[in-house]
Structure of Parvulin-like PPIase:
Amino acid sequence: MKRSSRIEHRSGSSRFGRSVVLLGLVATVAAPIATSVAHAQTADASGALNIPDNPRIFGKTDPNVRRATAVVNGEIITGTDIDQRLALIINANGGKVNPEEMDRLRLQVLRNLIDETLQIQEAKAADIDITDDEVMETYTRVASQNFGKDVAALDKYLAGIGSSSASLKRQIKGELAWQRLLRRNVQPFINVSDEEVKEVMDRLNAAKGTEEYRIGEIYLSANDQNRAQVEANAQKIVDQLKQGGSFVAYARQYSEASTAAVGGDLGWIKLAQLPNELAAAAATMAAGQLTGPVPVSGGFSIIYLIDKRQVLTADPRDAVLALKQISISFPKGIAEKDATARAATFAAAVKEIHGCGEAEGAASKLGATIVANDQIKARDLPPALQDMLLKLSVGEATAPFGSIEDGVRVLLLCGRDDPKQAAGPNFDQLQAQMEDERVNKRAQTYLRDLRRDAVIEYD
C-alpha cells in the first residue's frame, strides 16, 4: 500500500480525457500549480495496531522465497504476465538491471499487476466495457508517438525485448478502465467553488516573481528495525539512476508516495511546501541534478530537480532560438595531439565568422558540416549550452565543444524570439486542475479499498 504523499499531485490528464500509460509510454500528465498543492498528514506506521516492540514469531518464514504468481478474485496472474511486463521496465532502463534489482522489480511488477487487475475487475462490475477497438486506437497512438513505429513494427519490437503486444494492450486497457470508472463514480461528486479558485489565483498573483521548483521524488518508508536495509536499497537505486536508469520508471516501481503513479513528479512547488530536509537539499541543486538518499520523517527520499522557474514571470529559457551548428569529425584512431591541433584550428577559424550569413562558406572551407534549426527552445538544450547561448548576441558563436569520438562543433546564434510575459492559468484551467487533484486523492482511497477487500492467493 502506498503512503499518501506529503505533497499531493494529480495523476491524470485534464478532465480524464486521455489515458496515462505506465512507464512513460503516453505523456499526458500536466503538473499542477504549486499553490493548489495540499499537505497530507503522515500517519504513524503502526496506526492503532497493538504491536509489541520485540515480537516473537511463531512458525517459519523465509524472506528469500519469492512468490511468482497470484490469483486475484479468481483471475490468474501468470509468470509470463510478470516476465513480459518486467521486460518493458528493463528496456526502459537500458537493460542495466543487476540480479538483486531484478528480484525487487519482479515483486513490484506483481504488485502493479494486482492493482491493475483490481481496477479492471471493478470497472467490469460497474458495467464499464473497454472495447478492443478503443485499446487498439490507443496502442496505435503509443506506437507512433512514443516509439516512432507503426503497429506491426511495435509488435515485432516488443517481442524482440521479451515482452508482447498483449501485455502492453492489457496495460492500456487497465488505464482506460480506471480513468472511465473515476470519471463516472468519483468525478461527479467533486466540487471546487469559485471562491476557492479565486483564493488560489490571488495567492498566485501575490507570489509573482518568487521561485518554484519542479521536483521528482522516490520515497521509501523505514522504521527502526529496517532503517539500515532501506537506506542501503535507496543507495542502490541512486547508483542505478546515476548509471543511466530512468527516474520515472524507478519512481513508478519503488516509490511509496502517491506520486509514484506519475513517475514521482511533485509538480511545481515552493521549497516551503517540502519537509525541511528536502527543502535544504533542493535549494542547493541545479536543474537535472539528483541527490539522496535524504533521511526524512518515516524513511528516505531520493529527489531529482527537474526544473526551476519564477511564478508568473517569463523564463528566458523559453526563448525560441534559430541556430546553425558547424561540426567537424576526426578519423578513427586519430592521435589525441592531432585531434587537439585540428580542434584548435577549427576554433580559430570559427572566431572569424561574422554572422550566420558566412556560416556556409566558412563550413565549406573547413571541410565541416552544417545543420540549421530555427525552432528550438533554449530549455531543450543541455544546461551548459543554455547558459552560453542566452549570453550571446545574434551572429556570435559558442565555444567549441565535443570529443574525439563525437567530433567538435559550435553553435551560431542566428536569431532569438524571447518569451512573452507569463500569464499563468486562467480561471477555468485552474478550477480543472484543482478538481483533478481531488479526484486523484479519492482514487487513491478507492484503490486502497479494493486491495483491502480483495481475495488474493499466491503460488
Observations:
- The longest helix spans residues 99-125.
- The chain has three domains: 14-39+67-192+435-458, 194-313, 316-417.
- Residues 1-46, 61-66 have pLDDT under 50 and may be disordered.
- The two ends are 21 Å apart (CA to CA).
